[in-house]
Amino acid sequence: MMARDGTVMDWALRTGIVQWLTQTVGSKRLLDRLAAAFFAVVCLAISAYALVRPDYNWDMVAYVATALEDRHSDPVELHAETWKLIGERASDTQLYALQQSNPYNLNQWQNPADFQSQLSMYRVKVAYIATLRALEPVVGLVNAAILLSVLPSLALGGFCLFWLAREDALQGAFVLAPLLVLADYAHMTTAVVPDMLVSLVSFVAIYLLLRKRDLAACVLLFASVFLRPDNIILVFALLLTAIAFGWRVLPLLITFVAALAGGMIVARLGGHPGWWAHFYFSCVQIQNSMANFHPDFSLVDFARGYVRGAVVAVMDNEWPAILALLLAGWALLARAGRTRGGRENALIFALAIGTLGKFASFPLPDDRFFFVFIGAMSMMLVTMWKPRFDTAVAQRAA
Questions:
Q1: Number of Cα atoms under 13 Å in the Cβ half of residue 292
Q2: What is the pLDDT of residues 179-208, one digit of tens each?
Q3: pLDDT at 2
Q4: Residue 223 burial class via C-beta count within 10 angstroms: exposed 0-12, middle 13-18, buried 19 and up
Q5: What pLDDT digit, counting tens, does each position of 30-77 carry?
Q6: Measured over all CA atoms, what is the biggest interatomic distance in the chain, rounded to whole angstroms?
Q7: Across all residues in the chain, what is the average pLDDT?
Q8: Alpha-carbon distance 61 to 74, whole Å?
C-alpha cells in the first residue's frame, strides 16, 4: 500500500520494517544460503518434473533408433523395435503426437525405410549414442535417454552453485536461476536431446579456461564436439579469442583442427548428407526421406533459411532478447568499473561472437541451440556483478 506523502519504502522506513528486515534476513551469510537454496530448489523441481513428465519428442525416437542400429540393420526390424521401446513408456496421447500429429511424423511411422534414412543426421553424435548404449544394460535405452538429460541438468546446477561460491557471488543465484530458465534450462531438462550434456561439459571447460587450465579445458572441448558436432563453433570462437587476446593459441588450435577432422571422419562414416542437404532439411523444407537427397545449392533457398530462422528466433524464442540484455549488462558493468581484466572479458567476448557464429553457421532458431553461450554468459556476468542484497537493504535503511 502506498503512503499518502511518500513511497512504500519511505513508509517502511518510518515504521521500522526495513530495520527489522536488515536485522533478520539482511546478513550476507543468511542471504547466501537462501540464494543457494532457491537455486537448488529450482534445479531439483525441474529435474523431478522431467522424470515424471519427460518430453517424448521426435528427436528422442531418432536417438533411440540410432542406438539400436548396431543390432538391427533391417529398416523394418529397426522401426518395430524402436517403437516397441517407446510404446512401453509413452502414453497413448504421447504416441499419437509422435506418430500422427503432422504429415512428417505420420510418414515416419508408416515407412520404415524413410525412418531409417533420417538417422544419418543423428549418427554424428557418436559420444552421445555410445553413452546411451553404455547405460542401456542398467536402465534400458528409453530411461537412459531421459537420464542423460536429467542427470547433467542436476550436475550443471550443482556446478553453477560451486562456481558462484568460488567467486563469492552466491546471492547472484537469485538472478541466475530465472536467466537460465528463460534461456531454456527447464525445457532442455525435460527434452530427450544431448544439449544438456554438452552444456555441462562446455560450462566446465569455460570455467577451466577462466582458471587458465587450458589443456584440461581443451580435452573437454574436444569431447563436446562428439556429443554435438556444432559445438565446434564454441571451439572456433575461443580460438579467435585466444588470438585476439594473446592467450596460448596452440592448445586451442590443435583442439579445433583435431575436432574438425574427427567430425568430418564421423560424418563420412555415418553417411551424413552434408551441410547443404542438412541445412535445406532443417531450415528450408523438411524431407520425408534423406536417401540420396542432394539438392542443388540455391541462393534464394539459402536466404529463405536465414530469414525464417531470424523471424522465428525473434518471435518465438528468448535468446536474442537475452543476448541483448547481457551485452547491455556487460557494458554497464564496464562503465561502473565492475568488469575485471584477464580472461573474464575475453571469455564473454568469445561467448558473444560464438552466439552470433552459431546462428550464422546454421540458423536454427531454438533456444536450446544457444544455451551453452547464453547460459555461460549469464554465469560470468553474475560473478562479475556479485549482487549483494544484504548491502542494498542495509544502505537503504541507513
A1: 1
A2: 999 999 999 999 989 999 999 999 999 999
A3: 45
A4: middle
A5: 999 999 999 999 999 999 999 999 999 999 999 999 999 999 989 999
A6: 80
A7: 91
A8: 17
CA distance 324 to 307: 19
HEC profile for the chain?
Answer: CCCCCCCHHHHHHHHCHHHHHHHHHCCHHHHHHHHHHHHHHHHHHHHHHHHHCCECCHHHHHHHHHHHCCCCCCHHHHHHHHHHHHHHHCCHHHHHHHHHCCHHHHHHHHCHHHHHHHHHHCCCCHHHHHHHHHHHHHHCHHHHHHHHHHHHHHHHHHHHHHHHHHCCCHHHHHHHHHHHHHCCHHHHHHECCCHHHHHHHHHHHHHHHHCCCHHHHHHHHHHHHHHCHHHHHHHHHHHHHHHHHCCCHHHHHHHHHHHHHHHHHHHHHHCCCCHHHHHHHHHHCCCCCCCCCCCCCCHHHHHHHHHHHHHHHHHHCCHHHHHHHHHHHHHHHHHCCCCCCCHHHHHHHHHHHHHHHHHHHCCCCCHHHHHHHHHHHHHHHHHHHCCCHHHHHHHHHC
pLDDT tens figures, 338-360? 777 678 999 999 999 999 999 99
**Among 133, 155, 150, residue whose Cα is nearest residue 63:** 133
- Bridge partners (DSSP) of residue 191 are 55
- pTM (predicted TM-score): 0.91
d(CA 155, CA 197): 9
CA 95/CA 92 separation, integer angstroms: 5
Distance separating alpha carbons of residues 225 and 265, to the nearest angstrom: 12
The answer, yes or no, to whether residue 210 has pLDDT greater than 70, is yes
Q: Which three cell numbers stand for residue 222?
A: 574436444
Least confident of 7-21, 41-55, 64-78, 320-334: 7-21
